[in-house]
């Protein structure tokens, strides 16, 4: 059981020091899967160890992959070149990457796989991915359009082209891409619809696939061809998590401090790294911020925007409503706890009223995190400037950044803990 709440005591001074974000969740879960599909031993270093990556590793172990963990940031993965049917449903908590990636990878298993998650995951849509698998002739079914999903795979496909709408989640596209290299023929994967959340995540996927020996080519702006090469075991270095970095970048500008992350913003290949440029403009953030290509950074930017000189409207964030929680709602509710009207919704846009005079005040704000790590981590930033910001269920940060509270503490942040 985690703690009930944590109140942040504003440090009243610039945050200065060295603080490294953990390994990238997105890259760790891609690498774990690809190493698990390969034959041979892969050493993944710089990896994230958190709820999301533990769920992925446990699921792979349940499918016959041997995974050793010699230290806090390394996985040594021994794959057989084939995943075996697990004896029980795969329980993946609220890990979107693990759930989506394994739903598609299950098509490569000879036998039945049930992919399931917690109550939150059971509300996150997966029907577009299940429909795409069915169009390849794979026996896959969901009763609710969300997990659980039952897949009876054979490793063989009946078509060589699949269409997928990535509007709700780019993870569907990544899932199909990674699965396709393990199939029995070249597959063309075509995007349907206009929007895709963060195309950068697709680039992350194809880069990881190539590192594990796959042949994947972008044949048009909306089509990828994947050859049936399978994967080769390899040693793979995982970069730090760019979404986790956004909290440290924001803490730096909010407090006027200097935090050395050990990695320059330009060195990240993940989409959220582009948030750095925006954060660096604080307290003169743009009037409109398009969050579509840096979605997981939006909670960070929205809380930062509360202290901006002028109001900020966030657009392109409709699919934040189907993340760990409805993040547009959670942000407007949390901001309004700090000051009535500070955050409002207009359709799927979030408008942050902004008031630099909030800094130095004291409020009574109990922030409902809805068990969402990013809501907890972003509202902690408000607590650096305002007294009385209390984060409910603070240990939900374990999803992607288990050491978050200790990392802030190492920079001089203090808390008032209360189990009640
Ligand atoms: O592919 C990935 O690693 C991710 C893609 C994004 O999700 P969607 O594609 O569901 O928008 C992002 O929000 C998530 O944290 C990680
Ligand atoms: C949306 C997120 O996670 P996922 O979809 O991987 O559960 C996130 O980490 O912000």
From TrEMBL:
Pfam families: EPSP_synthase (PF00275). CDD domains: EPSP_synthase (cd01556). Pathway: Metabolic intermediate biosynthesis; chorismate biosynthesis; chorismate from D-erythrose 4-phosphate and phosphoenolpyruvate: step 6/7. It comes from the Bacteria. One of its GO terms (biological process) is amino acid biosynthetic process. GO terms for cellular component: cytoplasm. The active site is at residue 296. Its main location: cytoplasm. It catalyses: 3-phosphoshikimate + phosphoenolpyruvate = 5-O-(1-carboxyvinyl)-3-phosphoshikimate + phosphate. Keywords: Amino-acid biosynthesis, Aromatic amino acid biosynthesis, Cytoplasm, Transferase. Residues 11-408 form the Enolpyruvate transferase domain. 3-phosphoshikimate binds at residues 25-26, 30, 169-171, 296, 319, 323. Monomer. This is 3-phosphoshikimate 1-carboxyvinyltransferase. It comes from Rhizobium tubonense. The lineage of its organism: Bacteria, Pseudomonadati, Pseudomonadota, Alphaproteobacteria, Hyphomicrobiales.
């Amino acid at each position: 059981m985690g703690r009930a709440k944590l109140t942040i005591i504003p440090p009243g001074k610039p945050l200065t020091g060295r603080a490294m974000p953990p390994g990238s969740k997105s890259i760790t879960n891609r690498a774990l899967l690809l190493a698990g599909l390969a034959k041979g031993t892969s050493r993944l270093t710089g990896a994230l160890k958190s709820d999301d990556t533990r769920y992925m590793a446990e699921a792979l172990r349940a499918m016959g992959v041997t995974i050793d963990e010699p230290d806090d940031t390394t996985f040594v993965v021994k794959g057989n070149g084939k995943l075996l049917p697990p004896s029980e449903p795969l329980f993946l908590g609220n890990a979107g990457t693990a759930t989506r990636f394994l739903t598609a990878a299950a098509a490569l298993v000879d036998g039945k796989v049930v992919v399931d998650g917690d109550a939150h995951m059971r509300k996150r849509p997966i029907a577009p991915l299940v429909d795409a698998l069915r169009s390849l002739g794979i026996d896959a079914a969901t009763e609710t359009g969300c997990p659980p999903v039952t897949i009876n795979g054979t490793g063989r496909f009946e078509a060589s082209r699949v269409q997928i709408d990535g509007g709700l989640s780019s993870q569907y596209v990544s899932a199909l891409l990674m699965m396709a290299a393990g199939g029995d023929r070249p597959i063309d994967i075509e995007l349907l619809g206009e929007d895709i959340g963060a195309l950068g995540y697709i680039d992350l996927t194809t880069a990881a696939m190539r590192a594990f020996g796959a042949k994947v080519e972008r044949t048009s702006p909306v089509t990828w061809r994947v050859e049936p090469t399978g994967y080769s075991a390899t040693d793979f270095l995982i970069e730090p998590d760019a979404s986790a970095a956004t909290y440290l970048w924001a803490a730096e500008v909010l407090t006027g401090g200097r935090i050395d992350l050990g990695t320059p913003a330009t060195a990240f290949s993940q989409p959220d790294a582009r948030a750095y440029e925006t954060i660096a403009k604080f307290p003169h953030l743009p009037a409109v911020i398009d969050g579509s290509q840096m979605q997981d950074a939006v909670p960070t930017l929205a809380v930062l925007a509360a202290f901006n000189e002028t109001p900020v409207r966030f657009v392109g964030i409709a699919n934040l409503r189907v993340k760990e929680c409805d993040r547009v709602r959670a942000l407007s509710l949390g901001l309004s706890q700090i000051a009535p009207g500070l955050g409002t919704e207009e359709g799927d846009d979030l408008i942050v009223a902004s008031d630099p005079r909030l800094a130095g005040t004291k409020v009574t704000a109990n922030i409902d995190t809805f068990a969402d790590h990013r809501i907890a981590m972003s509202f902690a930033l408000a607590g650096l400037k305002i007294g009385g910001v209390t984060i409910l269920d603070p240990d939900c940060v374990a999803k992607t950044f288990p050491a978050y509270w200790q990392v802030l503490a190492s920079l001089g942040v203090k808390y008032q803990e209360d189990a009640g």
